[in-house]
Structures are given as structure tokens and as C-alpha cells.
Amino acid sequence: MTAQEFDFSDHSHRRYNPLTDSWVLVSPHRAKRPWLGQQEAAYKPTAPLYDSKCYLCPGNERATGGQNPKYESTYIFPNDYAAVKIDQPPLPKTDPDKDTLRNRLFNVQSVRGNCFVICFSPKHNLSIPQMKLSDLIHVINAWQTLYNDLAREAREIHKPYKYVQIFENKGTAMGCSNLHPHGQAWCLEAIPSEVSQELKSFSKYKHEHNTDLFADYIKLELQEKSRLVLENESFMVVVPYWAVWPFETMIVSKKKIPSIGNFNQTLKDDLASILKRLTIKYDNMFETSFPYSMGLHQAPLNATGDALNDSWFHMHFYPPLLRSATVRKFLVGFEMLGEPQRDLTPEQAAEKLRNLDGEVHYLEKF
């Protein structure tokens, strides 16, 4: 190789993220350095089918004194420690037109809402890759029901709900305090910043190019295939060109669907299938219960106009593991003070994920 030939798999470069109007620094040569830093304890699933001390298991008492029913499928209940609440006093009145330093610099909004816990399964020792497809359909049905119920409450009884963020933190490495398979949903009277920025980017792209950002992105990824991990009739999984986390992925609906509220049975079946295959690949990567933060991005509740027309259902997976079950990526130093940085290129990460079994979970081999 001559000095003039640029190698994306070896030379530093920045990649643009059109969803968030931001950049990520890619330094692939750094992946060759020896690791002498923090190592996590590798998690092996040894939990029982039922844990009498678990606040989320069927029939058990929760931390605040309430009791779970003996549920047999996916179960949703209001979070006992909600980050936002419906009932709270209004902010002190101020004159927004008055030009003061406080008004300029100390902007504040009251935020009301509600939070929910979504127990994926009554079985304490299961995670998404270990669940049956029929059980995953129950989870997706629960997401859809919650989305549609909250939208109806906002329309009909004027609850201050504008957006519901559905997500899962899996594993202690992602701050999960209870390993029972569960996710959460936070419903706010404001659209969260990440989603709001995506919607702005979608609108800007359509205004400039007269097409949808994701329509073009899907076309390009399916042509190049170097970052494609999985696909079926309805969805594709890619390591985004602008990915920050080592094995970050995104599930994107191939056709424009604003939200899970619009899903038919075929879409639910296909989402369950690709969710299971992707998370099996994650677990098989380092033969561990792979930690991640995962979330759905979709249309705001009761969206109209551009917010509805620009929305495109997709899911983000942000897993922290870097090169083994015990070595994780930390966003520190330059990442916090400058911009996000990654060592492994998205193409290298996609190839590793693509080559892993997505049908048989590693535990089934023993």
C-alpha cells in the first residue's frame, strides 16, 4: 500500500450521522492496542425460573407494597418509582417576554406524564433471545396496546401525553437493577430531545431532497450490504454507517410505517423473528447474556402533519461490549469533551455479527 491510498479499515476518519446532525470519529487502528483497563464480570444466566425475592415475579410483593397478579404472559403496571408524574404543581409564573439573564439562560419546562414497567415474561430466567416467538408476539402486542391506549387517553380524556418512549435496559452493565426480563415506557407531555432531533432531520431531508431519509438509507444499505446484518420481508438490521457503540445496530422497517400502532400481524411476526435472531447473535458473540439499551423510535402520540408524515418506525440497540464478555466501551475523555469515537469500523462489526448464528442460542449447545 502506498502512503496516498486511504484505507477506511485502518485510517482515522469522521462519519456524519444524518439522524442527529452530528459526527463520530472512527479510529480503526486503535483496535489493535492491548487492553489493560477495566474488565467486567462475565454474566452467565443462572437465575431460577421463579425468584421469591424478585419484585417483578408473578404473585410477589413489590417494593412499595403492591402485589403482582399471578400473570401468565406479558404484564404491564405503572412504575412504582416513576420518573415523571401526572399530578404535580405548576411552575411559578414568570414573564416570558421580559429580557432577563434568568429568562435567557435558565429556561425550564414542567413535564408531566406517566411511567410503566413491562414484564416480558412470568419466567424470571428468560431474556428476549431465549423466549419463544409466540411469547415475543405478546411483548409486541403489549407495546402496541400501550401506545394506542395512551394515544386514546390523550385524545379522549385530555391526558398530557405527547410521546411514549419504550425501551429495555438489559444487564447490570447497563444499570439494570432487576434481571427479571422487563422493559419500561416513559410517557411525557414533551417529545424527548433525541426523537425531536430525528424528526427535524427527517423534515429537513425531505425538504431538501423531496424523499424520505430512511427510504434512501434503506436503498443504499441494501445495495452495499457491507453493514447489513439481517433482513426479512418487513425489516432489516444494520450496523449504522455512523454507529458509536462497537456493535450498535438499528432495526428499520423497510416500508414507511409511522408507529407500532399501525402494525398488522405480519409486521408483528416479522419483528418478533428479527428481534430474536439479532439478540441470539448478540449472546453468541461472546457467549454471554449480552447487555444493551434498546428503544423504539416512532411517531408521537396522535401525530398530525409533518410529525406524522415524517416518522418512520425503527429501533436502536446500544450494546457496550467491545472485544469480549468482560471488556466494554466507555464514552469518556474525548467522547465526552469532543465527539463520540469508535475503534472497530461499522463494516467490521457488521461482518462479525453477520457470521454468527442467529437461530441457535449458545446455551442450547450445552
TrEMBL record:
Catalytic residues, per the record, are H182
Family note = Belongs to the galactose-1-phosphate uridylyltransferase type 1 family.
**Natural source organism:** Saccharomyces arboricola (strain H-6 / AS 2.3317 / CBS 10644) (Yeast)
Q: Provide a Gene Ontology MF annotation, just one.
A: UDP-glucose:hexose-1-phosphate uridylyltransferase activity
Give residue ranges for domain Galactose-1-phosphate uridyl transferase N-terminal: 5-192
- Pathway assigned to this chain's UniProt record: Carbohydrate metabolism; galactose metabolism
Per UniProt, residues of the Galactose-1-phosphate uridyl transferase C-terminal domain are 198-364
Query: Does the keyword section mention Metal-binding?
Result: yes
Q: Which reaction does it catalyse?
A: alpha-D-galactose 1-phosphate + UDP-alpha-D-glucose = alpha-D-glucose 1-phosphate + UDP-alpha-D-galactose
**Name under which the protein is recorded:** Galactose-1-phosphate uridylyltransferase
Any GO CC annotation of this UniProt entry: cytoplasm
The UniProt record gives the binding positions of UDP-alpha-D-glucose as: 30-33, 63, 79-80, 169, 175-177, 184, 329-330, 334-335, 341
Keyword terms of this UniProt record:
Carbohydrate metabolism, Galactose metabolism, Iron, Metal-binding, Nucleotidyltransferase, Transferase, Zinc
Q: How is the cofactor bound?
A: Binds 1 Fe cation per subunit.
InterPro entries per the UniProt record, alphabetical? GalP_UDPtransf1, GalP_UDPtransf1_His-AS, GalP_Utransf_C, GalP_Utransf_N, HIT-like_sf
> Which is a Pfam family this sequence falls into?
GalP_UDP_tr_C
What does UniProt list as this organism's lineage? Answer: Eukaryota, Fungi, Dikarya, Ascomycota, Saccharomycotina
